[in-house]
Amino acid sequence: MGSALAGTTTAAPAHAAPSGDIRINEVVTTGNVEDSIELYNKGTAATDISGWILKDDKDGSKYKIASGTTLAAGTSRAFDVHDAFGLGSDDKARLYLPDGKTLVDSFSWSKHSAPSWSRCPDGTGAFKAAKVTLGAANDCGGGGGTTPVTWPGSSNVTTADASDVFGQDLSGLYQDGNVMWAAQNNGRLWRLARNSSGGWAPDTNNGWASGKALRFPGGSGRPDSEAVTITGSGPAAGVFVAGERNGDASGTSRLSVLKYDVSGAGPTLTATKEWNLTSDLPPVGSNLGFEGITWVPDTHLTKAAFKDASTGTAYDPARYGAHSGGVFFTGVEGTGMIYGYVLQDSGAFTRVASISSGMDGVMELQWEPQAARLWAVCDDTCNGQHRTLQIDASGAFTTTAVYNRPTGMPNYNNEGFTLAGADECVAGSKPVYWSDDSNDDGHALRRGTIAC
User: Does residue 229 contact residue 174 with C-beta atoms inside 8 Å?
Assistant: First the structure.
């Protein structure tokens, strides 16, 4: 991208060191996360940026960074400046020390971001038009394994439910052996059992025949439940649902992970715990938030030398005390970002990863332990694209493959995806399932295969 289009940068003055390691790294002026500025620490040590000030092209407009804000080496953090000032089509972003006079870095542009202005590479390169990756490594293009290839299984797809069982809004899926969990947007969780035709039907035991209504802790509110996952065995095991808002206050984002005890027989499930992550994430529309969730055990993350973005060092589960024994990865529809969180039993949380999926939206996430890979799935917005990510030598999740949807499946609004375990491999393939939010042709569940 030429400098006339991308704008200009102003280096930090020499006397600002070590603050000179902090750079404006990404600017978003329009779209789902408009008026956002990301800072990046290109240095080798953590830097306290408490009280630093962001401005646009007007000296009277300013956003003050909160006390206690630190950027670890090689990490970034995005700030929503919308309430302080807007970023226009011909504007600039400026970063100052707490005195409001010492300029650290600036970037100017002459047209709206499309959809992001991003430094390539992070912290040191020139700005260019790129995908929105706030809080994660900038998407500078040219990465390996990003060319879509044919679906790695049969091209045939069949229905996996009876006609008009669920109706619309069936979203996240999670298969656990002979049980499949399904989250429906209207605040309902289903427990499904295998039927006689190789598909799934509502479990008729313990009050599950019509699904169960979900509630926030205390029994009030109706989560817009978009995704579901379960953790491993042990006292911390449970069913976890991700939602993007309270259905009783649908105009307000509430990006939450909720834990449920599903052992009872009653018609309603009240969350035993909520982790409300809204304040920790770039703002998106109330219907553009969490769409996917999956859980990756600590044992795999430590074995693969996963890098904790909050510390810049190898992930150490012990530093977080009592938690689920793994990291929850959540997917955001509005930005296509994936965020990893340690959710502590105390209710505290720490973001340990911010990953660009490379897609316009993430509607489902699934961890496949047998292949040690994370699946990120987009719906008809991306023509049903699926991506796999694995931990690379640097300790970060990176894209390893991009798959087109099976040719036998139309471009449905598939918001859920799940995979069978290795125990279901037959002749080199195993089942996978999708949930169609639109209930096309009266069916919400479909079945396909992938190579084991």
Answer: yes
For the cut 70, the answer to whether the pLDDT of residue 142 exceeds it is no
List the Cα angle 222/329/141 in 5-degree steps: 125
CB 292 within 8 A of CB 330: yes
Question: Using CB atoms within 10 A of its CB, is residue 33 exposed (0-12), middle (13-18) or buried (19+)?
Answer: buried
The per-type count for the chain, helices as H runs and strands as E runs, is 2, 36
Residue with tokens 């795999």: 300
| pLDDT on residue 18 | 55
* Contact status, residue 310 vs residue 351, Cβ threshold 8 Å: yes
> Which residues are registered as beta bridge partners of 436?
414
For the record, the structure tokens of 225 come out as 């439940």
List pLDDT tens digits, range 392-428: 988 999 999 999 999 999 999 999 999 999 999 998 8
Q: Model pTM greater than 0.90?
A: no
Is 442 within 8 Å of 163 (Cβ atoms)?
A: yes
- Strand-strand pairing, 337-343 and 349-356: antiparallel
Angle at 104 between CA 353 and CA 2, to 5 degrees: 80
Contact between 282 and 33 (Cβ < 8 Å): yes
pLDDT in tens, 42-80: 988 889 999 999 999 999 999 999 999 988 888 888 999
Whether the Cβ atoms of residue 21 and residue 42 lie closer than 8 Å to each other: yes
In 3-state terms, the chain is what percent helix, strand and coil (to 5)?
A: 10, 45, 50
Strand 253-260 and strand 290-297: the pairing is unpaired
Q: Find tokens 């909160």 and name the residue.
A: 66
Helical spans, DSSP H, in 199-339: 298-303
